Amino acid sequence: MAHGVSDEYKKEHFDSKIKLEKKLDQLAEWIRSAKHFIVFTGAGVSTSTGIPDFRSGMDTVLSTGPGAWELRDNRAKTPKNAKVLNDMHKAIPSVTHMALVELQRRNIIKCVISQNCDGLHLRSGLNPDCLAELHGNMNLEICSKCGANYLRDYDAATGGLDHLTGRKCDKPECRGLLKDSTINFGENLPRSEKSKAFRHANQADVCLALGSSLSVTPAADVPERVAERNQKLIIGNLQRTCLHKMSSLNIYAFTDTIMEGVMKRLNITIPPWILRRCVRFQIKHEKLNNCYQILIEGRDSDKDLPFSMFKSIIVKTPKSEYLLKKEPFSISIDMNVQDTKNEAKIQLQLNFFEHYNEIPYLLEYPLEDINEEFYLFWNPTTGVWVRKERADENLTQ
Ligand SMILES: [Zn+2]
C-alpha cells in the first residue's frame, strides 16, 4: 500500500484524437464480445462531480485541483479557482456513473468494483448486487452485533479507529452499536465485498479500470488478477498506473470522455440521473385506546434496508400539528381529544436533507388503516417530485 506516488506517475497524459478514437473502437469491440465484463473504479470517476481525488499532482488539469495527499505533502491548500463541493452529498453522479448504471441494467456489466466510499455508485442507481465497495460507503452503517445495514442520507463516516457512530441498531431485540463502513488505511477490506470482487475477477474476460492509479493494494489486486489470468485489462486514467505494463490497452483521457465514446459506439444512450426515494407509510387504528399509530419510514429502493432520508416530518391533524425531528418518525394520535366533526384527515410534510434542493413532499390521508410503499423521483433539473408505485417505472417521465 502506498500513499504518495513518484513524479513519473503524477504526469498527466492525453491521447491524441486519432489515437483515442482507435482505442475506443477497440474497447467497444471487446465489451461487445465480452462474456463477463467487469469495471473497477477509483476516485477519478468522481472528480467531474466536484469531489477531489487523492493523488493528482500540483499542476493537474482537473477542475477539482490537486489531490488531497498531494496538498498535504506540499502543505498547500485547495486553489481558489478549484471547483470542489463543500458537501459530497451534493455531487450529481457523472456521465461515467450513469453509463455504468445503464450497462449494468442491460446486463452487459456483471459487477462494478469500486475503491470509492463517496456512495455515488449506489446513488446513481447501480444495483447493489452488482457492486462491491471495497473501501466501504460513507452513507452505510453496519450493526456490530447482528450485521444489519442502515443507509443514511448524511455522512456516517467517523474517521475513528473504532468506527462507532454513536447510534444503535433499530431492532428492539438487538440494539447493537452501529459502526461506519468506511475502511481506513491499514484495515482489512470487508470480507463479503472482497470475495465478491475476486469472484468476478476470476471470471472476467474483460476488465475496465477507470480513474484509479491502481497503486492501493489489496484493491488493485482485483484488476491485476484479470491481467494475470491473461484476460483483457483496459486502463482509463490520466496518469500512468502501476499496472500499465500488464494491461492490454492504456487509454489516457478523462473517464467521462471514455464512457461517452464507448456508449456512442455501443449505440446506448446514457440516462440522466434522477434521485430515487422509497417511502413506507402506515396508519393503524388501535380500537382499545381509540388512537391512530402513524409510522413513516425511508427505505432503500433496491434492497430492503432502512434509509434515513428525512430531516424532519410535519404531521397535521384536524386539531394539532406535530414536528417529528428524529427517527423513528412515528406518532400516536389520540382521537378522544381530536375534533372529528369534519372528516378526519391527516396531512404530512416530508422534509428531506435538500442536498439536491429537494422541496418538501406533501401527502394527505384519511384516518383509516393504511399500509403502503411508494417511490418518489426527484429530477434536480426540473425541480419536481414524481410519485410512482413501482421503482422501475420510466423515470424520465
Ligand atoms: Zn443489530
UniProtKB/TrEMBL annotation:
<dbReference type="GO" id="GO:0005634">
    <property type="term" value="C:nucleus"/>
</dbReference>
<dbReference type="GO" id="GO:0046872">
    <property type="term" value="F:metal ion binding"/>
</dbReference>
<dbReference type="GO" id="GO:0003714">
    <property type="term" value="F:transcription corepressor activity"/>
</dbReference>
<keyword id="KW-0520">NAD</keyword>
<comment type="similarity">
    <text>Belongs to the sirtuin family. Class IV subfamily.</text>
</comment>
<dbReference type="InterPro" id="IPR026590">
    <property type="entry name" value="Ssirtuin_cat_dom"/>
</dbReference>
<dbReference type="GO" id="GO:0000122">
    <property type="term" value="P:negative regulation of transcription by RNA polymerase II"/>
</dbReference>
<feature type="active site" description="Proton acceptor">
    <location>
        <position position="135"/>
    </location>
</feature>
<dbReference type="InterPro" id="IPR029035">
    <property type="entry name" value="DHS-like_NAD/FAD-binding_dom"/>
</dbReference>
<keyword id="KW-0479">Metal-binding</keyword>
<dbReference type="InterPro" id="IPR003000">
    <property type="entry name" value="Sirtuin"/>
</dbReference>
<feature type="binding site">
    <location>
        <position position="174"/>
    </location>
    <ligand>
        <name>Zn(2+)</name>
    </ligand>
</feature>
<feature type="binding site">
    <location>
        <position position="143"/>
    </location>
    <ligand>
        <name>Zn(2+)</name>
    </ligand>
</feature>
<keyword id="KW-0862">Zinc</keyword>
<feature type="binding site">
    <location>
        <position position="146"/>
    </location>
    <ligand>
        <name>Zn(2+)</name>
    </ligand>
</feature>
<feature type="domain" description="Deacetylase sirtuin-type">
    <location>
        <begin position="17"/>
        <end position="269"/>
    </location>
</feature>
<dbReference type="GO" id="GO:0017136">
    <property type="term" value="F:histone deacetylase activity, NAD-dependent"/>
</dbReference>
<feature type="binding site">
    <location>
        <position position="169"/>
    </location>
    <ligand>
        <name>Zn(2+)</name>
    </ligand>
</feature>
<dbReference type="InterPro" id="IPR050134">
    <property type="entry name" value="NAD-dep_sirtuin_deacylases"/>
</dbReference>
<dbReference type="Pfam" id="PF02146">
    <property type="entry name" value="SIR2"/>
</dbReference>
<keyword id="KW-0808">Transferase</keyword>
<dbReference type="GO" id="GO:0070403">
    <property type="term" value="F:NAD+ binding"/>
</dbReference>
<protein>
    <recommendedName>
        <fullName>protein acetyllysine N-acetyltransferase</fullName>
        <ecNumber>2.3.1.286</ecNumber>
    </recommendedName>
</protein>
